[in-house]
Amino acid sequence: MKTMLAGAALALCAVACVTGGNSGSPGKVPPYVTAAVAEPTRPDADRKRDDDRKPDQVLTFSGIKPGDKVLELQPGGGYYTRLLCLVAGAKGQVTTLRVTPATPLNRPTPPDQPTPCKNISALTQKITELSLPSGQDAVWTSENYHDMHLPVFNADIKAFNAAVYNALKPGGVFIIEDHAAQSGSGARDSGTLHRIDPDLVKQEVTSAGFEFVGASEVLHRADDPMTGRVFELQGKTNKFLFKFRKPKK
Questions:
Q1: CA of 108: how far to CAs of 104, 113, 180, 206, in Å?
Q2: Domain residue ranges of the chain, discontinuous segments joined by +
Q3: Does 2-245 carry CATH code 3.40.50.150?
Q4: DSSP for 195-211, written as a single string
Q5: pLDDT, tens digit (0-9, with 9 covering 90-100), for 164-192
Q6: What are the residues whose beta carbons fall under 8 Å from the beta carbon of 171, sequence distance 6 or more?
C-alpha cells in the first residue's frame, strides 16, 4: 500500500509540483474549438483517441484562435494538425515541420488523412539546419519534446529552443505536451520509456528567454507510476501540458 501511495504521489508531483500555482482548468471551450473537434471529416481513429487526449480542453488552454499562424513541430500522424488547421481557420495558417536527425532515419511518412483544410503547409528540416518560419503566433509540439534528447538527434537543446523563440512574434506562445517522467529523472527516460521530467523541460525552455505562463492538469493521470514505456500503455500515460510565452517588447 505504501508503494502504491508513493507512486501516486510521484505522479501528482510530476505536474503539480512544477506549476508554481499556475495550474487549473483551461476555461470555457470556445465555439471554434468545439466545432473543430466535432468536424465530421475527422478520421474515426482520431475520434477514438479523444477521450484520452482531451483535445477540446488542450486547445482551449493553448489559446490558439482563428487567424493565428501556428508552427507544429513533429506532427506525427497529424492528429493535432487536423484540429489546429480548423481552429486557425481560413485566415490562419498551420505549418508542420518534421525535424529529422542529421542523418535522417529511414522511416515511412504516415499517410495523409482527410481534412477540409486548405491552410496547411509542410516542411522537413535536419536538426542541424533548422530555419523555422518567423512571425508565428504559436509553436506547438505534442508528445515529442523528449525526442530532442534522444542520442539519434544529438540536439543542441539551447539552439533548438532559441530557434522556437525566434520563430515567434513577441507575445507568441510555445505549447508543449509530453509524457511525464518521475521527478528528478531529467532526460534519463527519454530513449527508454519515451518520457521526460517536466522540471527539466521548464528549466530548458525558460533558459531560452521564455516566460512560463502556466500548466494544465487536464492530462494528468494519478494511476500512472511513470515507470512504463508509453507505447505499451495505449494512451494511458500521465502527461504534462505547459504554456510558455515570448515576452512582449
A1: 11, 15, 27, 34
A2: 2-245
A3: yes
A4: -B-HHHHHHHHHHTT-E
A5: 999 999 999 999 999 999 999 999 999 99
A6: 245, 246, 247, 248
